[in-house]
Amino acid sequence: MTKHLFIKTYGCQMNVYDSARMAELMTPLGYALAASPEGADLVILNTCHIRDKAAEKVFSELGTIRRLKEARARQGGRMIVAVAGCVAQAEGAEIFERAPFVDLVFGPQTYHNLPEMVARASRAAGERVLDTSFPAEPKFDFLPPTTTAPGVSAFLTVQEGCDKFCTFCVVPYTRGAEYSRPAAEIIAEARLLVAGGAREITLLGQNVNAYHGHAPPDGPNGGEWRLGELIRALARIPGLARLRYTTSHPRDVDDGLVAAHRDVPELMPFLHLPVQSGSDRVLAAMNRRHTADQYRQTVGRLRGARPDLALSSDFIVGFPGESAADFQATLDLVGEIGFAQAFSFKYSPRPGTPAASAGDQVPEPVKTERLAALQALLREQQRAFGQSSIGRTLPVLFEKPGRHPGQLVGRSPYSQSVHAEAGAERIGDIVPVTILDAQPNSLAGAIEPEPRSLAEPRLLAEHRA
Length: 465
Fold this sequence. Notes:
single chain; about 475 residues; alpha/beta; Rossmann fold; CATH 2.40.50.140; 14 helices; disordered C terminus
Protein backbone atom coordinates (compact mmCIF):
# COMPACT_ATOMS: atom_id res chain seq x y z
CA MET A 1 0.00 0.00 0.00
CA THR A 2 1.32 3.44 -0.91
CA LYS A 3 2.31 5.67 1.97
CA HIS A 4 2.53 9.44 1.72
CA LEU A 5 5.55 11.60 2.49
CA PHE A 6 5.43 15.37 2.87
CA ILE A 7 8.67 17.37 3.03
CA LYS A 8 8.76 21.09 3.75
CA THR A 9 12.10 22.60 2.74
CA TYR A 10 13.46 25.78 4.27
CA GLY A 11 16.42 27.86 3.17
CA CYS A 12 19.17 27.13 0.73
CA GLN A 13 19.39 25.18 -2.52
CA MET A 14 21.38 22.49 -0.75
CA ASN A 15 18.36 21.78 1.42
CA VAL A 16 16.33 21.40 -1.79
CA TYR A 17 18.87 18.85 -2.99
CA ASP A 18 18.86 17.07 0.39
CA SER A 19 15.06 16.89 0.44
CA ALA A 20 15.04 15.29 -3.00
CA ARG A 21 17.55 12.69 -1.84
CA MET A 22 15.47 11.93 1.26
CA ALA A 23 12.43 11.36 -0.94
CA GLU A 24 14.50 8.98 -3.08
CA LEU A 25 15.56 7.04 0.00
CA MET A 26 11.94 6.48 1.01
CA THR A 27 10.58 5.58 -2.45
CA PRO A 28 11.67 1.90 -2.29
CA LEU A 29 9.76 1.65 1.01
CA GLY A 30 6.50 2.62 -0.68
CA TYR A 31 6.42 6.34 0.08
CA ALA A 32 5.10 8.77 -2.54
CA LEU A 33 5.44 12.53 -2.23
CA ALA A 34 2.36 14.41 -1.04
CA ALA A 35 1.54 18.05 -1.76
CA SER A 36 0.47 18.81 1.82
CA PRO A 37 0.93 17.34 5.30
CA GLU A 38 -2.76 16.44 5.67
CA GLY A 39 -3.03 12.67 5.59
CA ALA A 40 0.73 12.12 5.31
CA ASP A 41 2.29 9.10 6.98
CA LEU A 42 5.67 10.81 7.29
CA VAL A 43 6.25 14.57 7.59
CA ILE A 44 9.78 15.99 7.41
CA LEU A 45 10.68 19.61 8.10
CA ASN A 46 14.07 20.12 6.46
CA THR A 47 15.24 23.23 8.26
CA CYS A 48 17.67 26.12 7.84
CA HIS A 49 19.41 27.98 10.67
CA ILE A 50 20.94 30.91 8.78
CA ARG A 51 18.31 33.60 9.19
CA ASP A 52 16.82 35.27 12.25
CA LYS A 53 14.27 33.35 14.31
CA ALA A 54 14.79 30.21 12.20
CA ALA A 55 14.12 27.87 15.11
CA GLU A 56 10.97 29.74 16.18
CA LYS A 57 9.55 29.44 12.67
CA VAL A 58 10.08 25.69 12.83
CA PHE A 59 8.35 25.39 16.21
CA SER A 60 5.44 27.45 14.90
CA GLU A 61 5.10 25.03 11.97
CA LEU A 62 5.32 22.11 14.37
CA GLY A 63 2.25 23.45 16.18
CA THR A 64 0.22 22.93 12.99
CA ILE A 65 1.76 19.49 12.43
CA ARG A 66 0.89 18.44 15.99
CA ARG A 67 -2.79 19.09 15.37
CA LEU A 68 -2.68 17.07 12.14
CA LYS A 69 -0.91 14.21 13.93
CA GLU A 70 -3.52 14.18 16.69
CA ALA A 71 -6.35 14.18 14.13
CA ARG A 72 -4.69 11.28 12.34
CA ALA A 73 -4.45 9.34 15.58
CA ARG A 74 -8.15 9.87 16.30
CA GLN A 75 -8.86 8.27 12.93
CA GLY A 76 -6.79 5.23 13.91
CA GLY A 77 -3.77 6.19 11.81
CA ARG A 78 -0.26 7.29 12.59
CA MET A 79 1.91 10.16 11.42
CA ILE A 80 5.67 10.14 11.97
CA VAL A 81 7.08 13.64 12.38
CA ALA A 82 10.74 14.43 11.70
CA VAL A 83 12.83 17.59 12.04
CA ALA A 84 15.90 17.49 9.81
CA GLY A 85 18.59 19.90 8.68
CA CYS A 86 20.48 22.67 10.41
CA VAL A 87 17.95 23.63 13.11
CA ALA A 88 17.84 19.95 14.08
CA GLN A 89 21.64 19.92 14.23
CA ALA A 90 21.77 23.07 16.36
CA GLU A 91 18.83 22.42 18.68
CA GLY A 92 19.13 18.63 19.06
CA ALA A 93 17.28 17.17 22.04
CA GLU A 94 15.70 20.54 22.85
CA ILE A 95 13.29 19.88 19.98
CA PHE A 96 12.01 16.78 21.80
CA GLU A 97 11.61 18.84 24.99
CA ARG A 98 9.63 21.63 23.33
CA ALA A 99 7.73 19.37 20.91
CA PRO A 100 7.47 15.91 22.50
CA PHE A 101 5.29 14.61 19.65
CA VAL A 102 8.26 14.77 17.26
CA ASP A 103 9.59 11.29 16.46
CA LEU A 104 12.88 11.97 14.65
CA VAL A 105 15.52 14.67 14.93
CA PHE A 106 18.54 14.36 12.65
CA GLY A 107 21.18 16.62 11.19
CA PRO A 108 22.21 17.13 7.57
CA GLN A 109 25.03 14.59 7.77
CA THR A 110 22.87 11.64 8.82
CA TYR A 111 19.84 11.62 6.54
CA HIS A 112 21.22 8.61 4.65
CA ASN A 113 20.00 6.65 7.70
CA LEU A 114 16.42 7.87 7.27
CA PRO A 115 14.86 4.48 6.34
CA GLU A 116 16.36 2.90 9.46
CA MET A 117 15.25 5.80 11.67
CA VAL A 118 11.70 5.62 10.32
CA ALA A 119 11.64 1.86 10.93
CA ARG A 120 12.67 2.39 14.55
CA ALA A 121 10.02 5.09 15.06
CA SER A 122 7.35 2.89 13.45
CA ARG A 123 7.66 0.11 15.99
CA ALA A 124 4.91 -0.38 18.52
CA ALA A 125 7.03 1.17 21.28
CA GLY A 126 7.30 4.34 19.25
CA GLU A 127 11.03 4.90 19.73
CA ARG A 128 12.20 8.48 19.32
CA VAL A 129 15.46 8.86 17.41
CA LEU A 130 18.04 11.63 17.73
CA ASP A 131 21.10 11.67 15.46
CA THR A 132 23.13 14.87 15.15
CA SER A 133 26.47 13.14 14.76
CA PHE A 134 29.15 13.82 12.19
CA PRO A 135 29.94 10.34 10.81
CA ALA A 136 33.52 9.51 9.91
CA GLU A 137 32.39 8.44 6.43
CA PRO A 138 30.53 11.00 4.29
CA LYS A 139 26.83 10.39 3.76
CA PHE A 140 27.33 10.42 -0.01
CA ASP A 141 29.07 7.04 0.28
CA PHE A 142 25.77 5.54 1.44
CA LEU A 143 23.28 7.30 -0.83
CA PRO A 144 22.00 5.32 -3.82
CA PRO A 145 22.33 6.75 -7.34
CA THR A 146 19.79 9.47 -7.96
CA THR A 147 16.54 8.31 -9.52
CA THR A 148 14.66 11.60 -9.44
CA ALA A 149 13.57 13.09 -12.76
CA PRO A 150 14.72 16.64 -11.95
CA GLY A 151 12.99 18.69 -14.60
CA VAL A 152 14.86 21.14 -16.77
CA SER A 153 17.10 22.53 -14.00
CA ALA A 154 18.73 20.44 -11.30
CA PHE A 155 20.89 20.93 -8.22
CA LEU A 156 23.96 18.81 -7.56
CA THR A 157 25.93 19.02 -4.30
CA VAL A 158 29.67 18.81 -4.95
CA GLN A 159 31.02 20.24 -1.70
CA GLU A 160 29.65 20.55 1.81
CA GLY A 161 30.69 22.23 5.03
CA CYS A 162 32.98 25.18 5.65
CA ASP A 163 36.33 25.79 7.34
CA LYS A 164 36.21 29.60 7.18
CA PHE A 165 34.47 30.23 10.55
CA CYS A 166 33.05 33.66 9.81
CA THR A 167 32.12 35.06 13.20
CA PHE A 168 28.43 35.52 12.29
CA CYS A 169 27.85 32.11 10.71
CA VAL A 170 26.61 28.77 12.05
CA VAL A 171 27.46 26.68 8.96
CA PRO A 172 30.72 25.16 10.30
CA TYR A 173 28.78 24.00 13.37
CA THR A 174 25.71 22.65 11.57
CA ARG A 175 27.25 21.30 8.34
CA GLY A 176 30.72 20.47 9.64
CA ALA A 177 34.14 20.62 8.04
CA GLU A 178 34.67 21.00 4.31
CA TYR A 179 34.22 17.85 2.28
CA SER A 180 34.53 17.56 -1.51
CA ARG A 181 32.97 14.64 -3.34
CA PRO A 182 35.16 12.68 -5.78
CA ALA A 183 34.93 14.08 -9.30
CA ALA A 184 34.00 10.73 -10.85
CA GLU A 185 31.03 10.43 -8.47
CA ILE A 186 29.83 13.93 -9.37
CA ILE A 187 30.18 13.32 -13.11
CA ALA A 188 28.22 10.06 -12.81
CA GLU A 189 25.39 11.80 -10.93
CA ALA A 190 25.35 14.63 -13.46
CA ARG A 191 24.97 12.11 -16.29
CA LEU A 192 21.98 10.60 -14.50
CA LEU A 193 20.41 14.04 -14.05
CA VAL A 194 20.87 14.82 -17.74
CA ALA A 195 19.40 11.44 -18.66
CA GLY A 196 16.39 12.42 -16.52
CA GLY A 197 15.85 15.60 -18.52
CA ALA A 198 18.10 18.23 -16.92
CA ARG A 199 19.49 20.81 -19.35
CA GLU A 200 21.04 22.97 -16.62
CA ILE A 201 22.86 21.93 -13.43
CA THR A 202 23.75 24.20 -10.53
CA LEU A 203 26.71 22.92 -8.52
CA LEU A 204 26.16 23.42 -4.79
CA GLY A 205 28.39 23.88 -1.80
CA GLN A 206 28.50 25.99 1.34
CA ASN A 207 31.86 27.09 -0.05
CA VAL A 208 31.61 25.58 -3.51
CA ASN A 209 34.75 27.07 -5.00
CA ALA A 210 36.79 25.53 -2.21
CA TYR A 211 36.13 22.26 -4.05
CA HIS A 212 39.19 19.98 -4.09
CA GLY A 213 37.95 16.51 -4.96
CA HIS A 214 39.76 13.41 -6.09
CA ALA A 215 40.25 13.42 -9.86
CA PRO A 216 38.95 10.49 -11.93
CA PRO A 217 41.58 7.78 -12.42
CA ASP A 218 41.70 8.45 -16.16
CA GLY A 219 41.30 12.23 -15.94
CA PRO A 220 43.87 14.90 -16.73
CA ASN A 221 45.77 16.56 -13.88
CA GLY A 222 45.47 13.44 -11.76
CA GLY A 223 45.32 13.58 -7.99
CA GLU A 224 43.06 16.49 -7.13
CA TRP A 225 40.74 18.74 -9.10
CA ARG A 226 39.59 22.24 -8.24
CA LEU A 227 36.22 23.60 -9.32
CA GLY A 228 37.46 24.91 -12.67
CA GLU A 229 38.62 21.46 -13.75
CA LEU A 230 35.35 19.89 -12.58
CA ILE A 231 33.34 22.44 -14.59
CA ARG A 232 35.34 21.65 -17.74
CA ALA A 233 34.66 17.92 -17.32
CA LEU A 234 30.93 18.40 -16.69
CA ALA A 235 30.62 20.70 -19.71
CA ARG A 236 31.58 17.76 -21.93
CA ILE A 237 28.48 15.73 -20.94
CA PRO A 238 26.23 15.44 -24.03
CA GLY A 239 22.92 17.21 -23.51
CA LEU A 240 24.08 19.43 -20.65
CA ALA A 241 23.65 22.96 -21.95
CA ARG A 242 24.27 25.13 -18.90
CA LEU A 243 26.28 25.12 -15.68
CA ARG A 244 26.11 27.41 -12.66
CA TYR A 245 27.57 27.21 -9.15
CA THR A 246 26.81 28.68 -5.70
CA THR A 247 27.81 29.79 -3.08
CA SER A 248 31.33 31.12 -3.55
CA HIS A 249 33.93 32.69 -1.28
CA PRO A 250 36.17 35.44 -2.66
CA ARG A 251 39.25 33.78 -1.14
CA ASP A 252 38.80 30.69 -3.31
CA VAL A 253 38.52 32.24 -6.77
CA ASP A 254 41.66 30.71 -8.29
CA ASP A 255 43.13 31.11 -11.77
CA GLY A 256 41.58 27.85 -12.96
CA LEU A 257 38.09 29.04 -12.10
CA VAL A 258 38.67 32.41 -13.74
CA ALA A 259 39.87 30.60 -16.87
CA ALA A 260 36.73 28.43 -16.85
CA HIS A 261 34.61 31.58 -16.99
CA ARG A 262 36.63 32.61 -20.04
CA ASP A 263 36.78 29.29 -21.86
CA VAL A 264 33.63 27.27 -21.06
CA PRO A 265 30.54 28.53 -22.88
CA GLU A 266 28.30 26.23 -20.84
CA LEU A 267 29.28 28.14 -17.67
CA MET A 268 26.74 30.94 -17.39
CA PRO A 269 27.90 34.55 -16.96
CA PHE A 270 26.28 34.99 -13.54
CA LEU A 271 28.06 34.60 -10.21
CA HIS A 272 26.92 34.90 -6.61
CA LEU A 273 30.01 36.18 -4.77
CA PRO A 274 29.20 37.32 -1.21
CA VAL A 275 31.23 40.23 0.17
CA GLN A 276 29.11 41.06 3.29
CA SER A 277 30.71 44.51 3.86
CA GLY A 278 32.85 47.12 2.13
CA SER A 279 34.75 48.01 5.31
CA ASP A 280 38.08 46.32 5.98
CA ARG A 281 37.56 46.78 9.72
CA VAL A 282 34.21 45.02 9.62
CA LEU A 283 35.50 42.31 7.27
CA ALA A 284 38.30 41.58 9.75
CA ALA A 285 35.80 41.40 12.62
CA MET A 286 33.73 39.00 10.51
CA ASN A 287 36.85 36.87 9.88
CA ARG A 288 36.15 37.03 6.16
CA ARG A 289 39.88 36.70 5.35
CA HIS A 290 39.79 39.21 2.52
CA THR A 291 39.78 43.00 2.23
CA ALA A 292 37.49 45.19 0.16
CA ASP A 293 40.31 45.84 -2.32
CA GLN A 294 41.00 42.11 -2.66
CA TYR A 295 37.31 41.66 -3.49
CA ARG A 296 37.58 44.41 -6.10
CA GLN A 297 40.65 42.72 -7.58
CA THR A 298 38.87 39.36 -7.72
CA VAL A 299 35.92 40.94 -9.52
CA GLY A 300 38.37 42.59 -11.92
CA ARG A 301 39.99 39.24 -12.74
CA LEU A 302 36.61 37.64 -13.36
CA ARG A 303 35.33 40.48 -15.54
CA GLY A 304 38.61 40.50 -17.39
CA ALA A 305 37.89 36.89 -18.33
CA ARG A 306 34.16 37.42 -18.95
CA PRO A 307 33.36 41.13 -19.44
CA ASP A 308 29.57 40.67 -19.25
CA LEU A 309 29.66 38.72 -15.97
CA ALA A 310 26.64 39.66 -13.84
CA LEU A 311 27.25 39.63 -10.11
CA SER A 312 25.09 38.91 -7.11
CA SER A 313 26.20 39.26 -3.50
CA ASP A 314 25.25 39.08 0.18
CA PHE A 315 25.44 42.03 2.57
CA ILE A 316 25.07 42.30 6.32
CA VAL A 317 24.40 45.75 7.76
CA GLY A 318 24.70 46.67 11.42
CA PHE A 319 27.37 44.11 12.24
CA PRO A 320 28.68 44.68 15.80
CA GLY A 321 30.90 47.74 15.84
CA GLU A 322 29.90 48.96 12.36
CA SER A 323 30.28 52.75 12.24
CA ALA A 324 28.72 55.23 9.85
CA ALA A 325 32.05 55.33 7.98
CA ASP A 326 32.09 51.52 7.75
CA PHE A 327 28.60 51.53 6.29
CA GLN A 328 29.53 54.27 3.82
CA ALA A 329 32.40 52.04 2.67
CA THR A 330 29.81 49.37 1.84
CA LEU A 331 27.75 51.84 -0.17
CA ASP A 332 30.90 52.96 -1.98
CA LEU A 333 31.81 49.36 -2.86
CA VAL A 334 28.31 48.65 -4.18
CA GLY A 335 28.37 51.80 -6.28
CA GLU A 336 31.75 50.90 -7.73
CA ILE A 337 31.15 47.20 -8.46
CA GLY A 338 27.53 47.20 -9.64
CA PHE A 339 25.31 44.20 -8.90
CA ALA A 340 22.59 42.64 -11.01
CA GLN A 341 20.91 41.40 -7.84
CA ALA A 342 21.78 41.01 -4.18
CA PHE A 343 20.57 39.80 -0.79
CA SER A 344 20.91 42.15 2.16
CA PHE A 345 19.99 41.70 5.81
CA LYS A 346 20.28 43.31 9.19
CA TYR A 347 22.76 41.51 11.42
CA SER A 348 21.02 39.11 13.78
CA PRO A 349 22.99 37.14 16.37
CA ARG A 350 23.27 33.41 15.83
CA PRO A 351 23.60 31.60 19.18
CA GLY A 352 27.03 30.09 19.68
CA THR A 353 28.81 32.29 17.16
CA PRO A 354 31.55 34.74 18.31
CA ALA A 355 29.76 37.84 17.02
CA ALA A 356 26.67 37.07 19.10
CA SER A 357 28.51 37.94 22.32
CA ALA A 358 30.18 41.11 21.01
CA GLY A 359 29.54 44.08 23.26
CA ASP A 360 29.19 46.77 20.63
CA GLN A 361 25.87 45.75 19.05
CA VAL A 362 24.38 48.32 16.68
CA PRO A 363 20.97 49.69 17.75
CA GLU A 364 18.02 48.26 15.83
CA PRO A 365 16.81 51.63 14.45
CA VAL A 366 20.28 52.28 13.01
CA LYS A 367 20.28 48.86 11.36
CA THR A 368 16.86 49.53 9.86
CA GLU A 369 17.92 52.90 8.45
CA ARG A 370 21.12 51.52 6.95
CA LEU A 371 19.40 48.52 5.42
CA ALA A 372 16.84 50.78 3.75
CA ALA A 373 19.61 52.92 2.23
CA LEU A 374 21.56 49.90 0.97
CA GLN A 375 18.50 48.20 -0.47
CA ALA A 376 17.47 51.37 -2.30
CA LEU A 377 20.86 51.43 -4.04
CA LEU A 378 20.76 47.72 -4.82
CA ARG A 379 17.21 47.95 -6.19
CA GLU A 380 18.26 50.76 -8.51
CA GLN A 381 21.19 48.69 -9.80
CA GLN A 382 18.92 45.68 -10.35
CA ARG A 383 16.37 47.89 -12.14
CA ALA A 384 19.04 49.38 -14.39
CA PHE A 385 20.41 45.94 -15.24
CA GLY A 386 16.93 44.73 -16.16
CA GLN A 387 16.28 47.82 -18.26
CA SER A 388 19.55 47.25 -20.14
CA SER A 389 18.10 43.97 -21.39
CA ILE A 390 15.20 45.63 -23.24
CA GLY A 391 15.64 45.30 -26.96
CA ARG A 392 18.22 42.54 -26.64
CA THR A 393 17.71 38.96 -27.77
CA LEU A 394 18.69 36.53 -25.02
CA PRO A 395 18.89 32.73 -25.12
CA VAL A 396 16.23 31.62 -22.62
CA LEU A 397 16.00 28.12 -21.20
CA PHE A 398 12.27 27.53 -20.68
CA GLU A 399 11.63 25.67 -17.42
CA LYS A 400 7.91 25.62 -16.63
CA PRO A 401 4.48 27.06 -17.43
CA GLY A 402 3.83 30.66 -16.45
CA ARG A 403 0.90 32.05 -14.52
CA HIS A 404 -1.11 32.74 -17.65
CA PRO A 405 -2.33 30.24 -20.26
CA GLY A 406 0.05 29.90 -23.18
CA GLN A 407 2.94 31.41 -21.22
CA LEU A 408 6.27 29.83 -20.27
CA VAL A 409 8.90 30.96 -17.77
CA GLY A 410 12.62 30.46 -18.23
CA ARG A 411 15.95 31.97 -17.33
CA SER A 412 18.42 34.07 -19.22
CA PRO A 413 22.16 33.39 -18.98
CA TYR A 414 22.21 36.07 -16.27
CA SER A 415 19.69 34.16 -14.10
CA GLN A 416 16.88 36.60 -14.90
CA SER A 417 13.38 35.18 -14.93
CA VAL A 418 11.90 35.61 -18.43
CA HIS A 419 8.21 35.26 -19.42
CA ALA A 420 7.11 34.70 -23.02
CA GLU A 421 4.19 33.22 -24.91
CA ALA A 422 5.09 29.67 -25.96
CA GLY A 423 3.64 26.20 -26.02
CA ALA A 424 4.47 23.59 -23.40
CA GLU A 425 6.44 21.63 -26.01
CA ARG A 426 9.17 24.30 -25.73
CA ILE A 427 9.94 23.43 -22.10
CA GLY A 428 13.55 22.31 -22.02
CA ASP A 429 14.47 24.27 -25.16
CA ILE A 430 16.88 27.18 -25.28
CA VAL A 431 15.05 29.76 -27.36
CA PRO A 432 16.01 33.28 -28.57
CA VAL A 433 13.69 35.75 -26.86
CA THR A 434 13.63 39.48 -27.60
CA ILE A 435 13.12 41.37 -24.33
CA LEU A 436 10.26 43.85 -24.49
CA ASP A 437 9.75 44.85 -20.86
CA ALA A 438 11.58 44.70 -17.53
CA GLN A 439 9.90 44.46 -14.14
CA PRO A 440 11.80 44.55 -10.81
CA ASN A 441 12.22 40.78 -10.65
CA SER A 442 11.53 39.51 -14.17
CA LEU A 443 11.65 40.22 -17.89
CA ALA A 444 8.96 39.79 -20.53
CA GLY A 445 9.67 39.08 -24.17
CA ALA A 446 8.67 37.47 -27.42
CA ILE A 447 10.21 34.48 -29.14
CA GLU A 448 12.13 35.34 -32.28
CA PRO A 449 10.21 34.08 -35.34
CA GLU A 450 13.38 33.12 -37.20
CA PRO A 451 16.30 31.04 -35.90
CA ARG A 452 19.27 33.15 -34.96
CA SER A 453 22.55 32.79 -33.10
CA LEU A 454 22.31 31.96 -29.43
CA ALA A 455 25.82 33.22 -28.70
CA GLU A 456 25.94 34.67 -25.22
CA PRO A 457 25.19 38.42 -25.29
CA ARG A 458 27.54 40.84 -23.58
CA LEU A 459 25.06 42.89 -21.60
CA LEU A 460 26.75 43.96 -18.42
CA ALA A 461 29.92 45.38 -19.95
CA GLU A 462 27.86 47.63 -22.21
CA HIS A 463 25.50 48.52 -19.35
CA ARG A 464 28.42 49.64 -17.17
CA ALA A 465 29.93 51.62 -20.06
